[in-house]
Write a structure and sequence with these properties.
Blueprint lengths: L3 E7 L7 H9 L7 E5 L9 H9 L5 E4 L2 H4 L3 H13 L3 E4 L2 E3 L4 H34 L12 H13 L4 H8 L3 H16 L1
Parallel strand pairs: 1-2, 1-3, 3-4
Antiparallel strand pairs: 4-5
Helix pairs in contact: 4-5, 6-8, 7-8
Length: 194
């Protein structure tokens, strides 16, 4: 029997991964074999923690995920990941149930979970758009407030320019996601080229 490799993800930096980590530990995944992504949506395929988890699994190992929607939020993405794991001889455990593509019932259940995960993501997007339209019609939507003040942005740019801090370290220091760090750096670069 191979190793258990765990993966957990949350969509925002403010969310907590403790519950998912506890579930993975409960399934027997060693703490040092749990890979995490924080502040990245399931529709974003560029997830460093997932890439590390997929690189860590070998033939005979099992990738353990608390729920399918933590792994993928679309049917094609779920199928791609599931098929790639099966082709490599890696088992996929979703909330404690092993996905077996050779078993028609298991395959149907996996596909239904993927459809529901995608449906849930689509509903969330639709509700967000509806809420924004209502707020806009009432004059209450003025755009998103910046996550960092102008002073914090200037400090982030200064710290990055020293070369002493990685993007991950800047994310941690300022409690923001990777996209926010890159956005601040891009805006600073654009401002200096003008």
């Amino acid at each position: 029997m191979g190793e258990l490799i765990g993966y957990a993800r949350c969509s925002t930096v403010l969310q907590d991964l403790t519950a998912q980590t506890e579930i993975l530990l409960g399934f027997g995944v060693p703490e040092d074999r749990i890979y995490l992504d924080k502040g990245l949506t399931g529709t974003n395929r560029e997830r460093p923690g997932l890439d590390q988890a997929l690189a860590a699994v070998r033939a005979g190992d099992t990738l353990v995920v608390p729920k399918l929607d933590r792994l993928a939020r679309s049917v094609p993405d779920a199928r791609d990941i599931g098929d790639a794991l099966v082709a490599r001889g890696v088992r996929l455990s979703l909330g404690g149930s092993i996905y077996d593509p050779a078993d028609p019932m298991s395959k149907m259940f996996f596909n239904m979970l993927a459809v529901f995960a995608e449906f849930e993501a689509d509903l969330l997007k639709m509700r967000t758009r509806e809420g924004m339209a209502i707020a806009r019609s009432r004059g209450k939507l003025k755009g998103r407030a910046p996550k960092l003040t102008s002073r914090q942005q200037a400090e982030l740019v200064r710290m990055h320019a020293t070369g002493e801090y990685t993007i991950a370290e800047l994310m941690e220091v300022f409690s923001v996601g990777r996209a926010t760090v890159y956005r601040v750096l891009d805006r600073a670069a654009t401002a200096t080229t003008r």
